[in-house]
Amino acid sequence: xxxxxxxxxxxxxxxxxxxxxxxxxxxxxxxxxxxxxxxxxxxxxxxxxxxxxxxxxxxxxxxxxxxxxxxxxxxxxxxxxxxxxxxxxxxxxxxxxxxxxxxxxxxxxxxxxxxxxxxxxxxxxxxxxxxxxxxxxxxxxxxxxxxxxxxxxxxxxxxxxxxxxxxxxxxxxxxxxxxxxxxxxxxxxxxxxxxxxxxxxxxxxxxxxxxxxxxxxxxxxxxxxxxxxxxxxxxxxxxxxxxxxxxxxxxxxxxxxxxxxxxxxxxxxxxxxxxxxxxxxxxxxxxxxxxxxxxxxxxxxxxxxxxxxxxxxxxxxxxxxxxxxxxxxxxxxxxxxxxxxxxxxxxxxxxxxxxxxxxxxxxxxxxxxxxxxxxxxxxxxxxxxxxxxxxxxxxxxxxxxxxxxxxxxxxxxxxxxxxxxxxxxxxxxxxxxxxxxxxxxxxxxxxxxxxxxxxxxxxxxxxxxxxxxxxxxxxxxxxxxxxxxxxxxxxxxxxxxxxxxxxxxxxxxxxxxxxxxxxxxxxxxxxxxxxxxxxxxxxxxxxxxxxxxxxxxxxxxxxxxxxxxxxxxxxxxxxxxxxxxxxxxxxxxxxxxxxxxxxxxxxxxxxxxxxxxxxxxxxxxxxxxxxxxxxxxxxxxxxxxxxxxxxxxxxxxxxxxxxxxxxxxxxxxxxxxxxxxxxxxxxxx
Amino acid sequence: xxxxxxxxxxxxxxxxxxxxxxxxxxxxxxxxxxxxxxxxxxxxxxxxxxxxxxxxxxxxxxxxxxxxxxxxxxxxxxxxxxxxxxxxxxxxxxxxxxxxxxxxxxxxxxxxxxxxxxxxxxxxxxxxxxxxxxxxxxxxxxxxxxxxxxxxxxxxxxxxxxx
Lengths: 685, 163
Prior knowledge:
Chain A is an alpha+beta fold. Chain B contains five helices and eleven strands, in the order H-E-E-E-E-E-H-E-E-E-H-E-E-H-H-E. At the A-B interface, helix 12, strand 22 and strand 24 of A face strand 4, strand 5, strand 7 and strand 11 of B.
């Protein structure tokens, strides 16, 4: 596909998504002329673009849509659910037409015209004229105390006086110097004064901060942006921003009491006069300005190019480690220094390139509001969908791989979790259920949570179903945890009705398998009548990990360091073999299945005593017998499948410092191996 | 739209109907593979063994950041393997979007093979190895046996290696 065409599709997809988001936002929020305008603009540029590409049907349809929205804009109509549905259908239509231009060329769709007519009919008042948004005047009156003319029209770049008082307890994240240099990127720090309030020696605390800074800062950016910048750089600190060359009223020193207006973020002390200028109205403008600036500063790069760059950087990392290990005692000082410096730069480069691959989860989360809306409508449920932490960043490949599992979990939550409105009312719950999707990073992992406030998992029914499936007997009363585990087993579904959305007996096991194939895990918590929470844990990136090198004979294998629990001398552990089938070792009274790595990789056994590494995944442990440990290293995960085939037992390969390839063991496969021999043992016994 | 390059168009030099082939000896015979499928020729570096792989798969090596499999031509043809020496090479070739290496004792030449003179392979080899051959051709005094790299790599038969 030529690049112009590709650009068109990229932009078109972005616009379609944008329109959908705007529509959903409009539907849930109060009418806001700005969002309607955004919608109009989308339709308008879409029309232009598709006309330029010669897609007449697409441009005709979007032209019709544009006119309809023009009416919507002029009439200042509120978006009724009916109209929202129609407009969403129009968005779908654009998608269909787009897809057709790809596959069939410039062909139309017979339903275009009727859809447009319907939209026009609704807009042009076949519905009662909407009450001109009762909330609109009030919102506008509060949000426009500062008319553009009131903002001081400063001929020169505005200056601000910034007071920066670090949190009373200094912590490592606090770096005043970094703050200053960051400020300098967006403007100019004209004056910087340090003020100390050091108490007498006997009152001095070693970890406390007794200084503050006063800056005069010149920037073309909006005060809101300056504040945002400061807040980011100086969490927990007290920051004040006051315009210097503003109206006299604004120079009055704000007292902290006055300043603590609930509308402003707690860390910002807002002056009631100057700051109101900056609140609602300017804040919105600032956000717009920021976003438009963000657009101007980003460029579209094909993922292929990034992956190629990533590969190249991985190569450099390897070459670098070859170079480093080539140093000998004779290496002269200058070469040594150069290698050390190079090492640092290579590491930086690597991190930067890795960061390019990271995308905010909003990229994925944005797909869900629409799905929730449609699914809920289909099932006659009322669902309020909340998203949190959408700025959390994740590797692109991971994001894509998470799409299916999350879709499934959210559908399940709507279908099985959230009760119908009348049932909720009877149980004294609000009619509208809440599903919350949140993401956060902790301990080098990404956590994604799907939480609903629905009926929770009926453990009794899970038990019945398990009995029915012959997994347990009537007399078994497994723990809640075990019962929840059943949900992830293939062939399990408690849905009484098989719907076309979820509950076909496949699903949760696939979700679990998908998440695990990403090196992640999933767990569930649930309380009857209160709701269910699924927690997904995935690694930050698939491309790189910390590994532990294991050796058998002259071969070198890698296990993910996260899976390693502990290591023992083989002879230090009590060893039991039952029927030569099931070997176990006794680790502090607990018997753990033993897998011999030599056997696993098809090497002859040895008499030498080796080491045992205990590996754990998903709460299951295995003892792996190896010859030795080669040390810990960062490994770049490479696919074996790309140019070869999938090799069972291995998650991939990596390239060692000397350029050789080492295979990465798949811990879940090893555990499965251990479990299988356990099952064989159980069958024999 | 990018034009699809026809192999014959790009390789035809002055004469019509000839293709360039990379030619090498295995045992006493001369074999050839289409030069167009060959990406590069490397000196042999020890491969990392892949557990449970068939014997002709020597293992995997690092090709500028990509992991590729190396197949031993002699083992693949049922001949006893030779110890590696300075002339041992790996011919890196691409078939069906996958890149792999073929370990050879040595490479000798690039030849123009007149395509219209290629004859179907006589049943000179066992049936098992017959499928590796795509024809024979007499060039001057030499008889060149043309190889089918796709069959030699035969990724579909491997599909996945079970533990």
